[in-house]
Amino acid sequence: MSVLSADDRSEVNQVLTELDDAVTVHVFTEDECEYCEQTLDLYDDVAGESEHVSVEIHDMDDPLAEDLGARKYDGAPVTVITRGDVTGVRYFGIPSGQEFSSFLQDLIVVSRGAGETPLPEEVREQVREIDQPVELKVFVTPTCPHCPRAVRVAHDMAVENDLIEADAIESQEFRELSQEYGVRGVPQINVNETGQFTGGLPPQRFLEEVRSALEQ
């Protein structure tokens, strides 16, 4: 069933003309998942607006779920946008509301690959210099106006450096995880298990917070 209106689909079509290469949207679902069906309907609408977007649906028991990090937390749906070696761009929960724009921009960024993200060139260079695994958890809500910026910067970093994994986590759907990490305001960004900061920071400040956490 279509989720987007005709006007929305027209806008999506226009945005996706910026895709440079084909991307695959892997969606992992499970039984008794509140938002899985709505997520699949949303992606059907998106894929219908570009021949460069393919959607592959998997059960959470699929071995690929482990390979792509979909089992890291308890719950579904989980979305991983991939192209070639880019596998660290993930959504835990439906990317609705404010996060839908982030999802569309991620399709473009993943299609273009490293060196073509919207990050300033000096930030790109510093991101590429990171030589240790980094796991970014970006807790968001659909109505948060500052969350998309945090998600996009985190995902851009994951595209630029394959040692970085960036998870956009819908905090209301993943309540137990949000409680575990003490989420009281969004966007909250957790870096590995050593650092935490909040806000839709500009790329340079975002990177500084990440590097500070890695030094702890």
Structural account:
- The radius of gyration is 16 Å and the shape is globular.
- 38% of the residues lie in helices and 23% in strands.
- It has eight helices and eight strands.
- It is of the alpha/beta class and 216 residues long.
- It has a single domain (6-214), classed as Glutaredoxin (3-Layer(aba) Sandwich).
- The chain has helices at 6-15, 36-47, 63-67, 99-112, 121-128, 147-160, 175-180, 203-214; strands at 23-29, 53-59, 78-83, 86-92, 134-140, 164-170, 188-191, 195-198.
- α2 (36-47) links the parallel β1 (23-29) and β2.
- The protein has an eight-stranded mixed sheet with strand order 2-1-3-4-6-5-7-8, covered by helices on one side.
Compute the separation of the termini in Å: 48 Å
Apparent shape: globular
**Backbone structural class:** alpha/beta
The helical percent reads 25-40%
Radius of gyration, taken over Cα atoms and rounded to an integer in Å: 16 Å
CATH architecture label name:
3-Layer(aba) Sandwich
The percent range for strand residues is: 15-25%
CATH class: Alpha Beta
Order of strands, main sheet, comes to 2-1-3-4-6-5-7-8
Q: Please write the string of helix (H) and strand (E) elements.
A: HEHEHEEHHEHEHEEH
* Tally of structural domains: 1
Largest sheet, in brief, is: 8 strands, mixed
Low-confidence stretches: none
Number of strands: 8
Mean pLDDT equals 96
